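ok new one. same drill as before - C-alpha cells go in, u give me an amino acid for every spot. 135 of them this time. try not to just spam alanines like last time pls lmao
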C-alpha cells in the first residue's frame, strides 16, 4: 500500500514536470521565432518608446523629426551632411542593439530549450520505468 502511494506521488511529480517543460518549451520557441524575425529586419524591429525619438525609417523622416524637435529660439542650423551622419550613426546604433538583443534571446532560449528537452526525456523515461513497475 505504501509503495503504491509512493509510486502515484512519483508519477504525479513526473507528469507535472513534463507539463511545465512543455509549456516552457512553447514559450521559448516563440521567443526564438520573434528574435529570428527581428534579425531579418532590424530597423523595423527597433522600438523607441519616447515621443521625441526620431524615426529611422528613412533619412527624410529622420530629418523632419529632428527639425521638429529643435527649439526655434536657438540658432543651430544643421546641413544635410551633418544630418546624414547623425542618421547613419543612429541607424547603425539601432541595428546593433536589435542584433545584440536578438542574438542574446536566441542563445538564452536555445539553452532553455536544450534543458527542457533533457528534463522532458529524463522524466519521461523515468515515468515509463515507474509505470512498468506498477503493472
Amino acid at each position: 500500500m505504501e509503495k503504491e502511494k509512493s509510486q502515484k506521488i512519483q508519477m504525479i511529480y513526473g507528469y507535472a514536470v513534463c507539463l511545465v517543460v512543455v509549456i516552457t518549451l512553447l514559450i521559448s520557441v516563440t521567443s526564438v521565432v520573434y528574435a529570428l524575425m527581428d534579425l531579418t529586419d532590424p530597423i523595423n524591429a527597433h522600438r523607441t518608446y519616447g515621443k521625441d525619438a526620431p524615426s529611422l525609417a528613412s533619412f527624410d523622416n529622420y530629418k523632419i523629426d529632428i527639425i521638429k524637435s529643435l527649439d526655434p529660439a536657438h540658432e543651430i542650423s544643421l546641413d544635410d551632411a551633418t544630418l546624414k551622419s547623425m542618421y547613419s550613426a543612429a541607424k547603425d546604433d539601432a541595428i546593433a542593439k536589435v542584433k545584440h538583443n536578438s542574438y542574446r534571446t536566441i542563445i538564452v532560449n536555445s539553452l532553455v530549450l536544450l534543458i527542457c528537452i533533457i528534463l522532458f526525456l529524463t522524466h519521461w523515461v523515468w515515468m515509463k520505468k515507474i509505470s512498468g513497475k506498477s503493472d
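The helical segments are 2-40, 42-45, 59-69, 80-134. and btw The first helix runs from residue 2 to 40.
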